Amino acid sequence: MKVRVYYEDTDAAGVVYHAGYLRFFERARTEFFRDHGFNVAELAAAGNVFPVVRMEIEFKAPALHDDLLEIITLPEECRGASILIHQQAVRACDRKLLVEAHVTLACIGRDQAARRIPPQIRNMLLQQLSGQ
User: Could you give the residue numbers annotated as active site?
Assistant: First the structure.
């Protein structure tokens, strides 16, 4: 997913405020699911919610106002009730890696209890992991 850095995304120093990347990554995860045929709102309405339960993030270089970023989102691991996602923010013009994150999503139901990932999502993730 590509995202343009707007003035509102930056801090007083003119660089992307660190929490801004969380929004970029959240949007990219939603688009990842959409690109593979799954609407996150429809999944939630059916009782399958995927909240972030863990995130490791490393800030390597700053993004600046008006930079065009590419947010790369790839599954790393599919477990019984959780998914590990690898995300990167890369500056589009020079392919410089700016931010890297490992995000764990849990699959929970309406009762907030962990549940197995639905088979159709699991199958899509396993296909992605195998490179098909």
Answer: 11
Query: Dihedral, CA atoms, 109, 113, 118, 123, nearest 10 degrees?
Result: 140
Extended beta strands in 20-113, E state: 52-59, 68-78, 82-91, 97-106
Beta bridge partners of 88: 72, 100
What six digits make up the tokens of 62? 């700053």
Nearest Cα neighbor of 64 from 32, 30, 96, 100 is 96
Encoded tokens for 48? 């399958």
CATH of the domain at 58: 3.10.129.10
Say how many C-beta atoms besides its own lie within 10 A of residue 45's C-beta. Answer: 11
The verdict on pTM exceeding 0.85 is yes
pLDDT of residue 26: 97
The residue segments making up the domain with residue 67 are 2-130
Structural domain total, the chain: 1
